[in-house]
Amino acid sequence: MKLIVTENIYRFLNSVKPKGNEIERCGLLLGKKEEDYFVDEVYEVRNVKSSTSEFELDAAEALKIFEHAESVSKEVVGVWHTHPFWKAYPSAKDVSGMKIFPGVWVIVSREEIRAFVLEGEIREVEIVIA
Protein backbone atom coordinates (compact mmCIF):
# COMPACT_ATOMS: atom_id res chain seq x y z
CA MET A 1 0.00 0.00 0.00
CA LYS A 2 1.24 3.47 -0.95
CA LEU A 3 0.12 7.07 -0.73
CA ILE A 4 0.47 8.53 -4.20
CA VAL A 5 0.37 12.32 -4.35
CA THR A 6 0.92 14.91 -7.05
CA GLU A 7 3.96 17.12 -6.92
CA ASN A 8 1.73 20.08 -5.99
CA ILE A 9 0.24 18.17 -3.05
CA TYR A 10 3.71 17.26 -1.80
CA ARG A 11 4.85 20.87 -2.19
CA PHE A 12 1.85 22.00 -0.14
CA LEU A 13 2.58 19.48 2.63
CA ASN A 14 6.21 20.59 2.66
CA SER A 15 5.10 24.24 2.91
CA VAL A 16 3.14 23.60 6.13
CA LYS A 17 6.12 22.18 8.03
CA PRO A 18 6.07 23.88 11.44
CA LYS A 19 8.66 26.60 11.77
CA GLY A 20 8.06 27.99 15.24
CA ASN A 21 5.70 28.09 18.17
CA GLU A 22 2.46 27.58 16.27
CA ILE A 23 -0.79 25.66 16.59
CA GLU A 24 -1.28 22.37 14.81
CA ARG A 25 -2.55 22.83 11.28
CA CYS A 26 -4.86 20.26 9.77
CA GLY A 27 -6.93 19.33 6.78
CA LEU A 28 -8.34 16.70 4.47
CA LEU A 29 -7.02 14.71 1.51
CA LEU A 30 -9.24 13.96 -1.49
CA GLY A 31 -8.84 11.40 -4.22
CA LYS A 32 -9.57 7.71 -4.42
CA LYS A 33 -8.71 4.56 -2.53
CA GLU A 34 -7.95 1.40 -4.41
CA GLU A 35 -5.04 -0.82 -3.49
CA ASP A 36 -3.18 2.45 -2.90
CA TYR A 37 -4.36 5.89 -1.82
CA PHE A 38 -4.36 8.41 -4.69
CA VAL A 39 -4.55 12.06 -3.58
CA ASP A 40 -5.02 14.93 -6.01
CA GLU A 41 -6.69 17.54 -3.80
CA VAL A 42 -5.69 18.84 -0.38
CA TYR A 43 -7.56 21.27 1.85
CA GLU A 44 -6.59 23.08 5.01
CA VAL A 45 -9.34 23.19 7.62
CA ARG A 46 -9.41 25.46 10.66
CA ASN A 47 -8.23 23.80 13.87
CA VAL A 48 -10.95 24.67 16.39
CA LYS A 49 -8.71 23.52 19.27
CA SER A 50 -6.13 26.25 18.54
CA SER A 51 -3.60 24.01 20.28
CA THR A 52 0.06 23.21 19.74
CA SER A 53 -0.53 19.57 20.70
CA GLU A 54 -3.91 18.55 19.24
CA PHE A 55 -6.36 19.37 16.51
CA GLU A 56 -10.04 19.19 15.74
CA LEU A 57 -11.32 19.96 12.26
CA ASP A 58 -13.90 22.72 12.01
CA ALA A 59 -17.06 20.68 11.34
CA ALA A 60 -18.71 23.20 8.99
CA GLU A 61 -15.57 23.55 6.84
CA ALA A 62 -15.05 19.78 6.77
CA LEU A 63 -18.67 19.19 5.73
CA LYS A 64 -18.23 21.52 2.74
CA ILE A 65 -15.19 19.52 1.66
CA PHE A 66 -17.06 16.22 2.00
CA GLU A 67 -19.89 17.68 -0.10
CA HIS A 68 -17.40 18.91 -2.72
CA ALA A 69 -15.78 15.46 -2.85
CA GLU A 70 -19.14 13.84 -3.48
CA SER A 71 -20.00 16.38 -6.20
CA VAL A 72 -16.82 15.55 -8.14
CA SER A 73 -16.99 11.77 -7.54
CA LYS A 74 -14.01 11.68 -5.19
CA GLU A 75 -13.53 10.41 -1.67
CA VAL A 76 -12.06 11.99 1.42
CA VAL A 77 -9.28 9.42 1.78
CA GLY A 78 -7.37 10.90 4.66
CA VAL A 79 -6.40 13.55 7.13
CA TRP A 80 -3.21 15.59 7.38
CA HIS A 81 -1.93 17.57 10.34
CA THR A 82 1.25 19.03 11.73
CA HIS A 83 3.24 18.15 14.82
CA PRO A 84 4.97 21.43 15.75
CA PHE A 85 6.94 19.94 18.64
CA TRP A 86 6.79 16.17 18.08
CA LYS A 87 8.09 13.65 15.61
CA ALA A 88 6.03 12.67 12.58
CA TYR A 89 4.48 9.64 14.30
CA PRO A 90 0.91 9.14 15.53
CA SER A 91 0.30 10.24 19.11
CA ALA A 92 -2.21 8.47 21.37
CA LYS A 93 -4.76 11.15 20.38
CA ASP A 94 -4.00 10.51 16.70
CA VAL A 95 -4.58 6.77 17.16
CA SER A 96 -7.96 7.52 18.76
CA GLY A 97 -8.80 9.71 15.77
CA MET A 98 -7.66 7.01 13.34
CA LYS A 99 -10.18 4.63 14.92
CA ILE A 100 -12.99 7.14 14.29
CA PHE A 101 -11.82 8.28 10.85
CA PRO A 102 -10.03 5.43 9.09
CA GLY A 103 -7.93 6.23 6.08
CA VAL A 104 -4.44 7.52 5.58
CA TRP A 105 -3.11 10.00 8.13
CA VAL A 106 -0.28 12.28 7.03
CA ILE A 107 1.79 13.84 9.79
CA VAL A 108 4.07 16.76 9.01
CA SER A 109 6.79 17.59 11.53
CA ARG A 110 9.57 20.16 11.35
CA GLU A 111 11.85 17.54 9.78
CA GLU A 112 9.71 15.18 7.74
CA ILE A 113 6.41 14.12 6.19
CA ARG A 114 5.15 10.61 6.94
CA ALA A 115 1.92 8.71 6.34
CA PHE A 116 0.23 6.03 8.42
CA VAL A 117 -2.82 3.77 8.51
CA LEU A 118 -4.30 1.91 11.45
CA GLU A 119 -4.96 -1.70 10.51
CA GLY A 120 -4.95 -3.46 13.85
CA GLU A 121 -1.64 -1.71 14.45
CA ILE A 122 -0.03 1.45 13.13
CA ARG A 123 1.53 0.88 9.74
CA GLU A 124 3.66 3.37 7.84
CA VAL A 125 2.66 3.99 4.23
CA GLU A 126 5.24 4.93 1.62
CA ILE A 127 4.65 8.36 0.06
CA VAL A 128 5.19 8.40 -3.71
CA ILE A 129 5.21 11.59 -5.78
CA ALA A 130 3.70 10.98 -9.21
Automatic annotation (TrEMBL):
Keyword tRNA processing: no
Residue ranges of domain JAB1/MPN/MOV34 metalloenzyme in the record: 1-130
GO biological processes: proteolysis
Keywords carried by this UniProt record: Hydrolase, Metal-binding, Metalloprotease, Protease, Zinc
Keyword Metal-binding: yes
Annotated InterPro entries: JAB_dom_prok (IPR028090), JAMM/MPN+_dom (IPR000555), VirAsm_ModProt (IPR051929)
Annotated Pfam families: Prok-JAB (PF14464)
Recorded GO MF terms: metalloexopeptidase activity; zinc ion binding
Protein name: Mov34/MPN/PAD-1 family protein
Native source species: Ferroglobus placidus (strain DSM 10642 / AEDII12DO)
